[in-house]
Design brief:
The chain is of the alpha/beta class. The chain has six helices and nine strands; from the N terminus they run βαββαβααβαβββαβ. It has a single domain, classed as Rossmann fold. Helix content is 34%, strand content 16%. The longest helix is centred in the C-terminal third of the chain and has 24 residues. NADP nicotinamide-adenine-dinucleotide phosphate (NAP) binds next to helix 1 and strand 7.
Length: 248
């Protein structure tokens, strides 16, 4: 499917907030946004590590997105936010890794996936509702994953990650319906970035065709292009990095 029709490029003084900007895709997205919008102010969050890089137009904030109070406190610093982009995510870590079969399912791992991949977008939507409403064309977008598509699920496995991303997708779709009334000039989007060479995908890259393993800089540039072209009529969709639509 072709990219949606080209819309005017957003003004260069906008406020863009990027959550999970210390990750592979998040960091590349911030670098791309700095380049693409030379006067935009960016507020970016990191989590466990240090600030990834300094820049006079970036205000960094350490944020654990599992902490509702911390999200509320961060949101209270902003009058207007134009784009709110969530790039944080969880696939494997101390709580475990993706399940090959139902016997491997562990409650704590499933709940950790929901805590990181699902709930934060809802909390961000709640606490940034007012700052986004002040924008002329607000966007709230979260990086989901194709494996969160129920219709596209042909391989099975990865219960916790799939479930958390499918629930995220439902959250975004539901929010888009509320925004038709509350933020009629806005757009809500779920984004699939393709398979990217990041820390998250490292343990699972063996079977990936090298041509389909993207570097995050490429993905970031495609996502910024896509976001720049979205309008309210396209709200509530699940997009791939190249502007194609995915089934929910
Ligand atoms: N890479 C792929 O092939 C691929 C494919 C499909 C979808 N995605 C999605 O793309 C998004 C970005 O992934 P990536 O590839 O860039 O992975 P990544 O390099 O591992 O980055 C993930 C980011 O999420 C942050 N994060 C995790 N838990 C957090 C928490 N509790 N609070 C705040 N931040 C937290 C991480 O920070 P810390 O490390 O400091 O915790 C890191 O900045 C994710 O939503 C992922 O599901 C990726």
């Amino acid at each position: 499917m072709p990219l949606p029709s080209v819309k005017s490029i957003p003004d260069a003084t906008r406020q863009i907030n990027v959550v999970g900007a210390s990750g592979g895709i998040g960091r590349a997205l911030v670098a791309c946004l700095l380049d693409r919008f030379p006067r935009a102010r960016i507020a970016a969050t990191h989590h466990r590590g240090d600030i990834p890089f300094e820049h006079d137009r970036i205000a960094w904030q350490r944020l654990d997105i599992r902490d509702p109070g911390a999200i509320a406190a961060w949101s209270s610093r902003f009058g207007q936010v134009d784009w709110l982009l969530n790039c944080a995510g969880y696939l494997h870590g101390e709580a475990g890794g993706p399940e090959k079969n139902i016997r491997s399912l562990e409650a704590d791992f499933l709940l950790e996936n929901l805590r990181v991949n699902t709930l934060p977008t809802l909390l961000l939507a709640k606490h940034f509702s007012a700052p986004l409403k002040k924008s002329g064309s607000p966007i709230l977008a979260t990086i989901s994953a194709r494996v969160g598509s129920i219709e596209d699920n042909r391989l099975g496995g990865w219960y916790s990650y799939r479930i958390s991303k499918a629930a995220l997708n439902m959250a975004l779709k539901t929010l888009s319906i509320e925004w038709q009334h509350s933020h009629p000039r806005g757009c809500v989007a779920a984004l699939h970035p393709g398979t990217n060479d990041t820390r998250m995908s490292k343990p699972f890259q063996a079977g990936v065709n090298p041509q389909q393993l993207f570097n995050p800089e490429y993905t970031a540039s495609r996502l910024v292009k896509l976001l720049s072209q979205l309008d309210p009529g396209q709200s509530g969709n699940f997009w791939t990095w190249d502007g194609a639509r995915l089934p929910w």
